[in-house]
Amino acid sequence: MASNVNPTVRRRRLGQELRRLRELKGMTAEEVAERLLVSQSKISRLENGRRSISQRDVRDLCGVYEVEDQRIVDSLMEMARDSRQQGWWHTFGDIPYSVYIGLETDAESLRVYEPQLVTGLLQTRAYAEALVQGALPETSTAEIEKRVQVRMRRQERVTAETNPLRLWVVLDEAALRRVVGSKLVMREQLEHLIELSQLPHVTVQVLPFEVGAHPGLNGQYAILEFTDAADSSVVYLEGVTSDLYLEKAQDVQKYAVMYEHLRAQSLNVEQSRQFIAETAKEYAE
Asked: Which residues of 91-111 are buried (b: 16+ CB within 10 A; e: fewer)?
C-alpha cells in the first residue's frame, strides 16, 4: 500500500461524499436502500465509513443519485479502490480497534482524557505488557505480544521527527497511583512520561484527586482532529465489545468544552511534571 493512502480515512471521505450526493438528491437512506434492495443499515455504514465500499457500491449509488459528471464517478471509484487496501496495522491480523488506529494514524492532533491508566501512546513496553495481561487475563501470550507491538508502532507518530502527532493528555491522579506490573514498572513508566512531556508537541496535565467531581467522571475519551478540512473531528469512546465514534458537530463541541474544563481544573504543565516526579520517587522506596 502506498504510504500516503490511509484506507480508514478514504472510507470516511468517500462516505461523506456519498451522503452529500444523497442529500442533494433529497433522498433518505431508507429510500436509497429500497431502490438498491439492500438494508438501510448498509447505507448508513457506507456513509459513516465503518464499512469498506466496493466500486460496485459506488457505481450503483451514483446511478441512483443520477451523477452525470464522469470525473466525479471516476474519483469516487478511485477512493473506493484505495479504501479496500490495507493499512500497516492489518499486517498484525485482526485488531479490535483498527478503525481507531486508522484515524489516529492520519490525525493532526489528539486530545485524550484518561481516568485510570497512562494513555497508550505514552506507555513503556513493560507497562503495556502488564496492562494487557491484567486487563485480558484469558489472552494468549502471542496475542498479548501482538497488541503490545501494535501499541509500540502507534507511538512512532509521537516521536516522529517530521509531522509528529500533536498530543494533549489529561491524566487523572488514579492513573499514576494504580500499580500496573510492579513498582519498578511504574517508576520507569512515570519517568518515561516526564521525558515525553518535554517534547514540544506533547502536553501532559494531571487532574488531582483534590479537584473532586469534574466533567470527566463518565470515563475516558479522545478527540481526533485532522489537517484536511474535509475530515470532520471525531470523538472516540472505547468500549469492551464495541467502540463509539461521534462526528456530529454538536457532539464534538460538547466533548471539546468538557475537555477545556478538565484542562482548567488540572495542574499546569510544570506542576504536573513535578507531581509525576514526586509520585515516581514513591515507587523507588
From this structure: eeeebebbbbbbbbbbbeebb
